[in-house]
Amino acid sequence: MSPSVPLQEMIRAIRSARTQCEERGVIQRECAAIRAQFRQADNGGRSHNLAKLLYVHMLGYPAHFGQMECVRMIASPRYSEKRVGYLGAMMLLDEKQDASLLITNSIKNDLSNSNQYIQSLALCTLACMGSAEMCRDLAPEIDRLLRASNSYIKKKAALCAVHIVRKVHDLGELFTKAARSLLTEKNHGVVHGAVVLITELCERNSETLERFRKTVPDLVQIMKGLVISGYSPDHDVAGISDPFLQVRILRLLRILGRNNEAASDAMNDLLAQVATNTDSTKTVGNAVLYETVLTVLDIKSESGLRVLAVNILGRFLLNNDRNIRYIAMTSLQKIVGTDHNAVQRHRGTIVDCLKDQDASVKRRALELSLALVSASNIRSMMKELLSFLSSCPPELRSQTASGIFNAAERYAPSQRWHIDTILHVLTTAGGDVRDETVPNLIQLITNTSELHCYTVHKLYRALLSDISQQPLVQVACWCIGEYGDLLLTGECQETEPVQVTEDYVLDVLETVLQSHMSSPSTRGFALTATMKLSTRITENVDRIRSIVSIYGSCIDVELQQRAVEYNALFKKYDHMRAAVLERMPVIEKNSQGHTNGETIKESQTVKVKPGEPQQPANQVCDLLDLLGGSEQPLQPSPALGSAAPPIPVSTPNTVGGDLLDLLGGLEPTPITPVATVTVYEKDGVTVTLSCEKQSDSGLTVTLTASNSTESDIRGFTLQAAVPKSVQLHMKAPSGDSLPARGTAKVTQMVVLNNPNKVNLKMRLRISYTSQGSAVQDTVQIDSFPGLGQ
To answer: Where is this region: Disordered (predicted)?
Structure first.
């Protein structure tokens, strides 16, 4: 290919290449020819060669050797060369390269040129790739051009000033007066540039924001002129007069009216006029309406205007365009907490969006539907949500199940309805529920004694039909073990009569134990249930003994340990088996709620009624030892009316001592309470810190996060930084989501090693996503509890 081929010929040759290797060969030959011509002193085709080089750059090939040629062409007096040179500078140069500083003087000279098109080239280049140093040097020239008489130049200068303010915040004050004067211009392009510049100035400086609040009446007049103006061929887009300028003005009004009563009152009438007069059948009109809605919801607007804004979003939900439906639900999600009743009117439309084919629309509809659940609509909304759960994509099942659990716990009309709802979720999506679901449901069942018979019958039938849902199987096994006597002898009129025998129940539990679908935890539930049935049935105790003995040599250590302990109960402590395996007491939820699925209980005093027979003291102590002991040795009280001295607890000759030897000779040790301090508390998110000293220089810090808001928090992460001389190791957190109302917590262990004994400090970065918004915050920790700092 000849070095002097035109640009069109080079493009044709590149496109005709059949392989990538052939394309590279064409480009290498052309680049070699361009380099050779760049080295010539008198080259008349410089703009032609640079244009070809820019095309090569657009294809992704290296073109950096043309940077200096761009600098030379910018300094050329010819407009055709200057135009290509500026274009090359915008594409090949950036503020990090030293060559960009060489064009500063050329840009300054061109800003003073009498040709408006050359001035425009300089302004565009500065706005595109101007560094902070260039902006400081050329800012006075831009301020001068903002006051020029040429509208074309003023429009370009305003946009260039926006770039300068973003690069150097301190220069914003220089353009304040000129920006305000541009609002009086008739040219829409100049006004548009002025609004963008004022918006940038107000976002950067609070004092400038207060100063520009005086321009609200001027902006309102400009906006009214656009709304009521007739057809203008220069600015009309689908029947809307200059929608781009309208959107920019609405955004600026939103910033000026935020947290300001006077500014909000001045724009209320205008916003109502825009909301009622804008055509919503076209995408352009919907864009203006959406900005209007965002402005109404962000300022201190009247209640009637807010209802109008919510109704506009409700109309968006009926639009065929999924993008419009998505942004409508995103906006409704942000205001459902403050305008709940207004959003509630569109509940039916929102629920219908759960059937949408688009995954993003489904997710937004699910979040909004869960936020709309209340005590008045719990039954109807739960019916829709359960129907959605049975057909929703796998990635949404966990979120749906969690939302249903939270809503049922908060608004359940009855305990039976609550239990039925949770069982329905476990039957449908048991593999996608959180770990704390099983203990929470067990606690609920325990507290509803009048429903024990109904619940155990229902769970037994569920176990007969499906043992693949592990959480459901675990709860069913627990209930059969606790209330097996009600299953065998109880008459439940609320369920269909089913003949249940001891053999049938044991067959089901054996099926769970032997199933390949059962997890080790589920087998533990089933084995314990089988053992508990030994005190609730009479004819199959030997079969239970044989089942338990089989697992004494199980490969799973946890299951093996349980089986060995249960065998010991059968052989050596059969007299106390009934006491050990008696029905669990009512599980009470403490003020801290559930922690990782377990309920923490305060130590309770056991009261003995007069006349009740008491167990021998050694048996009582053995029972305490088997269940884990207490914080301090307990002595049983003598029978009422007896003057017998107290019996010592757990001597080596007692049965309890033998049992402790069987379990490894462990003795209960007092638990020292760990001091906990709150290091972060904001927007419903609380992070507490506790310390445990491991050695002279070692320290384990436990960070616990909870969420007291009404919505779930996702993507929760904690990052820690300490002084350089301190070694830090962060272990894996217990999770990355914080359920609403503190139903579960996230725990993060941090191990610190401070060999130099420096003053220990830690900085935490907290990041999470709440209601679709990303939040990041930082907190400094200067003292640690228990270290004496």
So the answer is: 591-614
